[in-house]
Input
Amino acid sequence: MTPTLFTPWESLAGGALIGASAVLLLLITGRIAGISGIVRRLLPPYGTSAPVEAAVFIGGLFASPFLWTLATGEPVRQTVTDSLSLAIVAGLLVGAGVFAARGCTSGHGVCGLARLSRRSIAATAIFMATAAATVYGVRHILGGWPWA
Amino acid sequence: MGVIGALAAGLLFGVGLIVSGMADPAKVLNFLDVAGTWDPSLAFVMAGAIGVAAPGFWLVRRRKAPLAAQSFLVPPADAPIDRSLVIGAAVFGIGWGLAGFCPGPALVSLPLGTQGAVAFVSAMVAAISVGALLQKRK
Output
C-alpha cells in the first residue's frame, strides 16, 4: 500500500495534546475521556450521564478541524476509504465492539493504560492484535477489500 | 464550568488527533501494517498521550473531587476482565483494521463530509444505539 511519512515529533506532540485533554476533562468533570463512552452518553437512559456535557465535548471534536485550518491555513490531510460497504461494515463492528468492551482507543488505549487499569491493558492488547491481523489479512492475503 | 471544560477538552482532543496524524486512516492502517508499509508514528501518539495523562491523572486524583462535579466517575483499575470485554475488544479491532477509523478520528472527520466518514459514523452510532436499547430492556 501507499507509504505514509514517519512523523515522530508531530505524533508525540499531538499525543501530548490528547493526554492534556484527558487530564483537563478529569480535573473539571471527573470523567474519563473515552470517545465511545461519550457517544454512549448521548443516548438514553441518562441517569448520571450528563448528556449536555457529552454533546458539547463532541461539538468540540466537530469544530476541531475548522479550528486547525483557521490556525494553520492547512486543510486536514486524510485518505478515507471510498468503499461504502467497507465503511459500513467497519462502523458496525467498531460500534458493537466498543459498546461491549465499554471503551475504545481513547478510553482503554490512552486513559486506561495511563491509570494501569487491568481491563484496559487486556482490551488494548486484544484490539491492537485483531486490528493488525485484519490489516494483514486484507492487504497481504486478500489483496484488498473484495467488495469495493 | 463543566460545559466550558468539556468544550475545551473536545477541541483539544480533536486538534491533538489532527496534529498527531491519527485523523488520517491511511496513517493508522500503515501503523497496523507491520509486514508492509509500516509507519510507527502512532506509537509516538500513545507515548505522548500516556506520558502526559499518567502523571496528570495521578495529580488530579489527589483531589477529593473534580472542579465541576460531586465526585470522580472512574471505573476501578482492578475491575475483572469479562467475556464481553474480550469479545468486544476483538470485534472493535477488526473494524478498526478495516477502515482505519476508531471513534475519535471518525467524529473529527465527520464534518469534513467524506462519504466514508459519514457512512462509518452512521453505522457506528447505529450499532451503539442498538446496544443501548438492548441493555435498557434487560
User: Anything to note?
Assistant: Chain A touches chain B through 116 residues (CB under 8 Å). Helices of chain A lie at 8-29, 35-40, 51-72, 84-101, 105-114, 118-141. The mean pLDDT of chain A is 96. The two ends of chain A are 16 Å apart (CA to CA).
